[in-house]
Amino acid sequence: MVQNDCWELRRRLLNAPDRLDIAKEARQRIHNGVFPPHIMKRFSDMLDYFGETPLVVRSSSLLEDSFGNAFSGKYASVFCANQGDRATRLEDLADAIKTVYASAMSRDALEYRVAHNLLERDEQMAILIQRVSGAAHGAWYFPHIAAVGFSFNPYVWHEDIDPRAGVLRLVFGLGTRAVNRSDDDYTRLVALNAPMLRPEHHESDLPAPAQQWADALNLEQGNVAPVAFRDLAPMLSDTVKALIASDDPVMAKAARSYGLKQAFTLRLSFDRLLGHTEFAARIRNMLASLEEVYGAPVDVEFAVNFTDDGAFRIHLLQCRPMQVKGVDHPELPSCAVNRESMVLQANGPVIGRSRFIRIHYLLYVAPERYSALPEREQYAVARLIGECNRRIAAPAMTGNLMLIAPGRWGSAMPALGVPVSFSEINRAAAICEVLALRDDLVTEVSLGTHFFNDLVELDMLYMAIAPEDKQAVLDRDWLENAPNRLPSLLPEAVKYDQTVRFISLAETNGPRLHLYADTRKQQVFLYRMNDAQENP
Question: What is the C-alpha separation between 450 and 255, in angstroms, rounded?
Answer without folding.
Answer: 39
